[in-house]
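Explain the record.
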Amino acid sequence: MDTIFLEQVKVQTKLGVPEWERMMPQTIILDIEIGYDLTNACQSDTIADTIDYGAVVRRIRETLTENSFKLVEALAEYLCQLILKEFGALSVKIKVAKPGILPGLKALGVIVERNRN
């Protein structure tokens, strides 16, 4: 399996357990690895044989503008399922980081990995 990666994708979304934290959008940072068979794309040199990275980022931004989550875990799971189902990925690994939330920490978050069943 091959891997498409999107690194340091900055997205605005409403996220957090306390209600006040979800009142205003905050920046989160996503690192995404998408497992996909790129054999055909390597030979054909056409976007139809791969996953359109721009479309993935647009879809994620659209989704996170429309939805809010309490937990980074729920947000990561939602995005994994979206990429698996809408883009036909074989696997997805997402790191969700909330920068500057707690004093003395650069960021906190989760890494979730899912495979297509």
In short: Helices lie at 39-44, 53-66, 72-87.
